[in-house]
């Protein structure tokens, strides 16, 4: 029996075209050209899905959503909204919409979202949803993120990334995720899990970069009481916790070769023993791993087992850095602003255009993680009711152009000059020259290490406190 969809939209042409398209793809469709008529049709019939435009002639789509949920709290509603209305999209998810569709409508994307909504058995949360960091889920429309809400952008690099995710998610392939720090590898792993047949089972993440050789075995496979000093009771490992679901191993290249050998046997045999135990336990997990470095290069250098690499490399995905996703930057700025305002219970008036331009020009070496933290800091420093200005941004962002100019042998013609460096005095003494040379050296090193002050201090052979003091002195001299 075909599934029944109700389309509520005051644009009769769009309504007709969308209805014909869904009918051709096996759905039974009814249409209403106003919010009130849509609500009436819904109460009189039984529908598996409702597609509603956010802006209707007689009422807002969010009011329609509220009325439909009063009639049937488990109704699945897809809201049609404009790409620029990021806050609107987040709001409809909070109010209980299953997902949203962005104008202009792209048939394949619409069909993909409709199919997922129809096939999904997950209950829709009662509105309003929990607004804490772990409460909201947003996916192209919504997806669950490693740290709560996560927005999917629309840049071409982002689309290509999610095309790959949609292809591989429904399989049991092991996957390697490559990407710079802060690009959201754990979020992508969780998204793959959520779109797989294992989405009702556990998703367990483990950071291999923080584990010593001695602890790695216990964390992966668990241990029995008395297995080693400090093992005061039995402990479940990450494999056991993820049984039936997905295990995400971040920075897997940091595992010792001994642990890699044990891991290989477990993946091959689908059995493991707890450290210090004799009982073999069966396990069924899908493994997704992540690495900053190319694991193929690592095994060629002898730092990673080649056989384990081939076990993992059934499919690989490269996460684009934020600097390659220019079309997403403004949308992410608004999204992080909305999220932080909710978190802090503080409303700011928005973001100044000059700050948005700074965001577009900055290289974002820390990617989405850095971007989120910059916006969080800015919201905290901005008085309620005012717009975020350059004064609330970190020094390395507002001075990025000057840092880049100081770093390279060729200085590009800059249209702006965030740092005002005084012209040399006519009588330039040795102290002034030394200070200027020190400034340029520090700026060059900071640029080289993507403004990582710890690494910069190490390269300059000074401690971090000294580096911070010198940077502050340069700022004071402006």
UniProtKB/TrEMBL annotation:
Domain (Sigma-54 factor interaction) ranges: 151-380
Q: Which residue ranges does the record assign to the Response regulatory domain?
A: 4-118
Under PROSITE patterns, the record lists: RESPONSE_REGULATORY, SIGMA54_INTERACT_1, SIGMA54_INTERACT_2, SIGMA54_INTERACT_4
Q: PANTHER family, from UniProt?
A: PROPIONATE CATABOLISM OPERON REGULATORY PROTEIN, TRANSCRIPTIONAL REGULATORY PROTEIN
Q: Which residues carry this modification: 4-aspartylphosphate?
A: 53
- Highest taxon of the lineage: Bacteria
One Pfam family name is HTH_8
Name the record gives this protein: Sigma-54 dependent transcriptional regulator
Q: What UniProt keywords are attached to this protein's entry?
A: ATP-binding, Nucleotide-binding, Phosphoprotein, Transcription, Transcription regulation
Q: State the organism named in the record.
A: Terrimonas ginsenosidimutans
What Gene3D superfamilies is this protein classified in? Answer: 1.10.8.60, 3.40.50.2300, Homeodomain-like, P-loop containing nucleotide triphosphate hydrolases
């Amino acid at each position: 029996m075909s599934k029944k969809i109700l389309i509520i939209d005051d644009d009769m042409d769009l309504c007709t075209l969308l209805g014909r398209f869904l009918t051709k793809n096996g759905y039974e469709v009814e249409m209403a050209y106003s919010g009130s008529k849509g609500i009436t049709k819904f109460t009189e019939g039984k529908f598996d899905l409702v597609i509603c435009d956010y802006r209707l002639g007689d009422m807002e789509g969010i009011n329609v959503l509220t009325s439909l949920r009063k009639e049937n709290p488990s109704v699945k509603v897809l809201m049609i909204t404009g790409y620029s209305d990021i806050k609107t999209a987040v709001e409809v998810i909070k109010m209980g919409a299953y997902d949203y569709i962005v104008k202009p409508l792209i048939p394949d994307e619409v069909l993909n979202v409709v199919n997922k909504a129809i096939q999904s058995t997950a209950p829709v949360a009662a509105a309003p949803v929990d607004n804490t960091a772990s409460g909201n889920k947003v996916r192209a429309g919504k997806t669950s993120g490693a740290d709560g809400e996560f927005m999917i952008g629309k840049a071409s690099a982002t689309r290509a990334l999610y095309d790959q995710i949609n292809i591989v998610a429904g399989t049991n392939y092991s996957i390697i995720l490559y990407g710079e720090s802060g690009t959201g590898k754990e979020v992508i792993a969780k998204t793959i899990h959520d779109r797989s047949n294992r989405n009702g089972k556990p998703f367990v993440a483990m950071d291999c970069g923080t584990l010593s050789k001695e602890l790695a075995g216990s964390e992966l496979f668990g241990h029995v009481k008395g297995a080693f000093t400090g093992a005061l009771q039995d402990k479940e490992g990450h494999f056991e916790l993820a049984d039936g679901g997905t295990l995400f191993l971040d920075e897997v290249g940091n595992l010792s070769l001994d642990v890699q050998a044990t891991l290989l046997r477990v993946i091959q045999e689908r059995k493991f023993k707890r450290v210090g135990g004799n009982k073999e336990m069966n396990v069924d997990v899908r493994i997704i791993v992540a690495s900053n470095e190319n694991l193929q290069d690592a095994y060629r250098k002898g730092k990673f087992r080649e056989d384990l690499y081939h076990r993992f490399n059934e499919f690989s995905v490269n996460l684009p850095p934020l600097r390659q996703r220019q079309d997403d930057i403004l949308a992410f700025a608004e999204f992080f602003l909305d999220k932080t305002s909710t978190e802090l219970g503080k409303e700011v008036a928005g973001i100044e255009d000059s700050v948005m331009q700074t965001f577009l020009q900055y290289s974002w070496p820390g990617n989405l993680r850095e971007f989120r933290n910059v916006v969080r800091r800015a919201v905290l420093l901005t008085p309620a009711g005012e717009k975020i200005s350059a004064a609330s941004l970190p020094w390395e962002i507002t001075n990025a152009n000057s840092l880049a100019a100081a770093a390279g042998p060729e200085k590009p013609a800059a249209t702006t000059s965030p740092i005002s460096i005084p012209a040399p005095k006519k009588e330039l003494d040795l102290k002034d020259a030394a200070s200027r040379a020190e400034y340029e050296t520090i700026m060059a090193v900071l640029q080289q290490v993507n403004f990582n002050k710890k690494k910069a201090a190490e390269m300059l052979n000074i401690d971090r406190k000294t580096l911070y003091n010198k940077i502050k002195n340069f700022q004071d001299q402006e």
